[in-house]
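pinging the channel bc i need a second pair of eyes. not urgent but kinda urgent?? the chain im working w is below, pasted from the shared doc
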Amino acid sequence: MAETKQRGNGEKQYSTVQSVGLMLLRLAVGWHFLYEGLVKLTTDGWSSASYLAQSRWLLGGLFDWIVAHPAALTVVDQLNIWGLLLIGLGLLLGVFTRAAAVGGIVLLALYWMANPPLVGLDYEMFTEGNYLVVDKNMVEMLALLVLAAFPTGSFFGLDRLIDSFRSRLARSRAVPPGPVDEQPGGWLLERRELLKSLISLPMLGGFAYAVMKKRGYESWEEKHLLSLAGGDTEAITSATARTFHFSSLKDLKGTLPKAKIGDMELSRMILGGNLIGGWAHARDLIYVSKLVKAYHHDRKVFETFSLAEQCGVNTILTNPVLSRVINEYWRKTGGKIQFISDCAFNNDILEGVRVSVDGGAHACYVQGGITDRLVPEGKLDEIAGALELIRGNGVPAGIGAHDLNSVIACVDAGLTPDFWVKTLHHTDYWSAIPE
């Protein structure tokens, strides 16, 4: 590689490899910024609310305030979108390159500070990789720092054109008045200089072509999938397609009412943990349980818990097996979601109670399947023993059941739980009770 040389006028001259390498870096980062901004601009209902709401670091309080005030959130969203678009356009065309790079650094720094991959803080945001302190935001931020340090827009870009006109204007003022075309150098650029100045324009054309191709493919794919559902015209104009809407946190109206079990206050709507734990109850589709467990990795569960709390849902009812991930959520995010355990653990209800209490359960109950099994066997004393152990640990004690006869039997036996957990379901689908 040729070394950097010094021009006669004191301006640094970089080797071709250095200049081209920095230009390619500028084009790549600019392309990314421009497309990110375009997607956000054209996505109906896009908002940064969920990203900001998950922040638990230095600016977490400010971000929470922004999310809580729709007017402020709208301003932030618009600044985000147009910042990405203008920064991307500046880098791609090589115009006002240093200003665009500095603006990009500021924007990426805010992204990084909102959810930094620091020890104990890398929790809710799902990423395509594994990060520790350094993530793609920081890497791109450092790349922009390099671009801000070098006049890459003057190598190949519109900044070169601007610099050339400024230079010629300065020279024209330094000579006696006369026709412009008689002044040293004139105003016309050499063809080589003009090509270097306008070399970024084809990249903008390539970007536009790539976007149209992608949008065209997605449109074709959507029409194709809809056509499989019953024909192009009918599928596209069907009620299903028309009612396919997405809601966001800003669509929430009012707050969820609360109820009490002993001293425990819980929202009247709570989360169920079956799908998170992999109990899909899909008898005909044997792969579904594994599928939902693969989908609900820790970060996805954290995201679900956080979203629930933002909606006013403050409790989850699930199996003690999930106490690990619930404790991780509490520890890493500062979340407050409460945990009601069904105490189903290794077919030992008392051991299930102990594991649940040790796992931080706010309330415990005898799982419905266990109750339905113990009642016909005449083992109501085991249910009574479980209630006693739960209460002995200072948490509310309940009884669950699928079969209403189980509830009747417990009442007749004088069992008085603090709460009941009863399913409301039918069994008239073909595979509910296989012959």
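so Residues 201-228 form the longest helix (28 residues). and Strands lie at 5-6, 12-13, 258-261, 264-267, 271-272, 315-318, 338-341, 363-366, 397-401, 419-422. — does that match what u expected or am i reading it wrong
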